[in-house]
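Here is the promised in-class demo. Please do not try to memorize the tokens; focus on the logic of going from shape to residues.
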């Protein structure tokens, strides 16, 4: 199954023209929805980012822990949560320094916004079926996902 890259209409296999927009458009293959025990891989990868609990469950449950895509997103979710918690603790300690702590309060909303944006990007990339890697965390997650 493929879709028109111009209008998004489904195109029959083997054809390169779209009947809806009558244009000769390159076809884009559909997002892979290979199932891992009843749930699509991209949905399971996306759910791994909701909290740390689904990520741990996907690493333990049998049909999901054999899928490299789901394992990668589960490990990246766990590593991101650990890094975010460590950053939060460091900023909390830094906030107790007399003069510098007051200045750090101005930075907190920006850090929260950056974390929210990263989290939304991770959710969207997992839903699109992509293995989007964060700079250092993604490499560690990929090593762990390939270790099995």
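The designed amino acids, position by position:
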């Amino acid at each position: 199954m493929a879709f028109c890259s111009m209008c998004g209409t489904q195109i029959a296999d083997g054809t390169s023209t779209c009947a809806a927009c009558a244009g000769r458009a390159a076809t884009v293959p559909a997002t892979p929805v290979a199932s891992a025990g009843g749930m699509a891989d991209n949905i399971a990868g996306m759910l791994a980012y909701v909290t740390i609990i689904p990520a741990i469950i996907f690493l333990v449950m049998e049909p999901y822990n054999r899928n490299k895509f789901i394992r990668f997103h589960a490990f990246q979710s766990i590593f991101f949560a650990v890094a975010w918690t460590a950053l939060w603790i460091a900023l909390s300690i830094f906030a107790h320094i007399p003069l510098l702590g007051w200045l750090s309060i101005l930075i907190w909303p920006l850090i929260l916004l950056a974390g929210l944006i990263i989290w939304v990007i991770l959710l969207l990339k997992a839903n699109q079926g992509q293995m989007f890697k964060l700079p250092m965390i993604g490499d560690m997650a990929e090593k762990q996902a390939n270790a099995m």
